[in-house]
């Protein structure tokens, strides 16, 4: 019997993929950072029983129609907005993601981004690196306090809850808005559910952690930024397209809000001439929410375990369910 064929769209650690090499012919795109071009992905998908994909790979109807042998797509992310999951399910293709294992790592990064933006850490480090530190003044590189302030979390899923837990250490008041109530966050962390409007109007830090869906596309726009305090800081660690970037830019230029910390952008990667990157009150990161060595290796391992399960007739650990 011929072995199943698996294509992996980015160079990943082989050690974490060991289980797959035992049961399948595994081919991996050799570049760690440069994405596999679309035409190559389509060609490989035509033969593949399994695909291990990244957020930058669009697993759309065109690709799924070509992939006549495909049984499983394992996405190296908790999000799966790059995959047409309904279409995959209709074709009997199992889609898996990597939830839970990246929750704490992503919450750490999100809180770090909040702190860096509020206290101007990147600007201050550059100040020293660029040899600008010549004297001292009472307001030199002064930022905003984080402790005892109000954090408003939009999207109180697992990562939102882990962020709220970190906010309790800074004795912050926690507001949240979500499709459904999170009783654990309310009872254990003291988070208070409120309308999006109330959250925008009263939070010192508005943090976006909601997945990208038709309902959340450009949820943050001119009107939302106008509702926020002029001293508020906006943080986005979910998906760029949840924000209208032009409206955010204008809100920052017009001083409708005080700053933004962004780990995600509508079209990634961005270049240094992206309008938001040029603003002094913006901290821009290259989508590194889950990027710790430990977590990224665990994510690869979980993708491998999920593919192994599907290709050997078992139920994968973390299958994406179409709602
Ligand atoms: C990805 C992410 O893991 O998990 C997600 O949904 O956004 C990140 O943690 C990363 O972009 C690799 O695809």
TrEMBL record:
Q: Does the keyword Cell membrane apply?
A: no
Recorded protein name is Glyoxylate/hydroxypyruvate reductase B
Q: What is its EC number?
A: 1.1.1.79, 1.1.1.81
Domain D-isomer specific 2-hydroxyacid dehydrogenase catalytic: where? 7-320
List, alphabetically, the Gene3D superfamilies matched.
NAD(P)-binding Rossmann-like Domain
Any idea which UniProt keywords this protein has? Oxidoreductase
Query: Which residue numbers delimit the D-isomer specific 2-hydroxyacid dehydrogenase NAD-binding domain?
Result: 111-289
Supply the SUPFAM superfamilies for this chain: Formate/glycerate dehydrogenase catalytic domain-like, NAD(P)-binding Rossmann-fold domains
In Gene Ontology terms, what is one molecular function of this protein? NAD binding
Catalytic activity annotation: glycolate + NADP(+) = glyoxylate + NADPH + H(+); (R)-glycerate + NADP(+) = 3-hydroxypyruvate + NADPH + H(+); (R)-glycerate + NAD(+) = 3-hydroxypyruvate + NADH + H(+)
Specify one Pfam family. 2-Hacid_dh
The species this protein was found in: Metabacillus litoralis
- Name the family: Belongs to the D-isomer specific 2-hydroxyacid dehydrogenase family. GhrB subfamily.
Task: Name the domain of life.
Answer: Bacteria
């Amino acid at each position: 019997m011929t072995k199943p064929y698996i294509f992996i769209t980015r160079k990943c650690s082989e050690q974490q993929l060991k289980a797959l090499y035992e049961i399948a012919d595994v081919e991996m795109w050799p570049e760690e950072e440069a994405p596999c071009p679309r035409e190559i992905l389509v060609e490989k998908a035509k033969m593949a029983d399994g695909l291990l994909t990244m957020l930058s790979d669009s697993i759309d109807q065109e690709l799924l129609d070509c992939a006549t042998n495909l049984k499983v797509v394992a996405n190296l992310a908790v999000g799966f907005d790059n995959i047409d999951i309904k279409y995959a399910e209709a074709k009997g293709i199992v889609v898996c993601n990597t939830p839970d294992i990246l929750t704490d790592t992503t919450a750490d990064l999100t809180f770090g981004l909040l702190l860096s933006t509020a206290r101007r850490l990147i600007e201050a480090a550059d100040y020293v690196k660029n040899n600008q530190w010549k004297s001292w003044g009472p307001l030199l590189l002064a930022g905003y306090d984080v402790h005892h302030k109000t954090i408003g979390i939009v999207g109180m899923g697992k990562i939102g809850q882990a962020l709220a837990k970190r906010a309790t250490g800074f004795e912050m008041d926690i507001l949240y808005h979500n499709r459904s109530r999170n009783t654990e966050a309310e009872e254990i962390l003291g988070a208070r559910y409120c309308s999006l409007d109330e959250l925008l109007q009263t939070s010192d830090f508005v943090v976006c952690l909601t997945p990208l869906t038709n309902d959340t596309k450009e949820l943050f726009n001119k009107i939302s930024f106008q509702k926020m305090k002029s001293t508020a800081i906006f943080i986005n660690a979910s998906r760029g397209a949840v924000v209208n970037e032009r409206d955010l830019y204008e809100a920052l230029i017009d001083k409708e809000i005080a700053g933004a910390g962004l780990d995600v952008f509508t079209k990634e990667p961005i270049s240094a001439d992206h309008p938001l990157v040029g603003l002094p009150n913006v901290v821009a990161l290259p989508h590194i929410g889950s990027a710790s060595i430990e977590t990224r290796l665990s994510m690869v391992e979980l993708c491998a375990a999920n593919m192994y399960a599907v290709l050997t007739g078992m139920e994968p650990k973390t299958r994406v369910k179409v709602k």
